């Protein structure tokens, strides 16, 4: 259970209501995810965070599926179950298979282990700048 209440869509007014409407429209969802409902206690923060989502996850040099894969990898590494499930769901909606998701997590597994080993041993970088 969340440590703060969710600002329901029925209770949203002003800026919060506007942002909620944009979230539903942009995501094509009939509801606003709880991530944003907890942010709504600070409407300016909600608006700024939503703008960041639209800017970063929207059209750019990387395609949306790649961005969602990065989001899953970072979320798994950081231990955010909410985000892993949300972005895995987005990947599923884009047609990702079980095999692709397992391969994605295999990359996370490989590099998480390498990162910890190299960090622990303080290995000097000889491959990049």
From TrEMBL:
The keyword Oxidoreductase belongs to this UniProt entry's keyword annotation: yes
Key words, A-Z: Oxidoreductase, Peroxidase
Entry-linked Pfam families: CMD
Keyword Chaperone: no
Alphabetized InterPro entries for the sequence: AhpD-like (IPR029032), AhpD_core (IPR004675), CMD-like (IPR003779)
Name of the protein in its database record: Uncharacterized peroxidase-related enzyme
Superkingdom as given in the UniProt entry: Bacteria
Organism of origin: Aromatoleum tolulyticum
PANTHER family (UniProt xref): CARBOXYMUCONOLACTONE DECARBOXYLASE-LIKE DOMAIN-CONTAINING PROTEIN, SI:CH211-175M2.5
Gene Ontology MF terms in the entry: peroxiredoxin activity
Domain Carboxymuconolactone decarboxylase-like: 47-123
Gene3D superfamilies in alphabetical order: AhpD-like
């Amino acid at each position: 259970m969340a440590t703060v209440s969710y600002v329901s869509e029925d209770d949203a007014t002003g800026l919060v209501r506007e942002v909620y409407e944009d979230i539903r429209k942009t995501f094509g969802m009939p509801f606003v995810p709880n991530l944003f409902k907890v942010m709504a206690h600070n409407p300016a923060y909600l608006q700024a965070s939503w703008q960041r989502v639209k800017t970063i996850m929207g059209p750019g040099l990387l395609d949306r599926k790649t961005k969602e894969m990065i989001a899953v990898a970072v979320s798994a590494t950081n231990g955010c179950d909410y985000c892993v499930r949300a972005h895995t769901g987005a990947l599923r909606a884009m047609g990702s298979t079980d095999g692709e998701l397992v391969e994605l997590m295999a990359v996370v597994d490989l590099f998480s282990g390498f990162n910890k080993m190299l960090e622990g041993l303080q290995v000097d970088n000889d491959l990049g700048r």
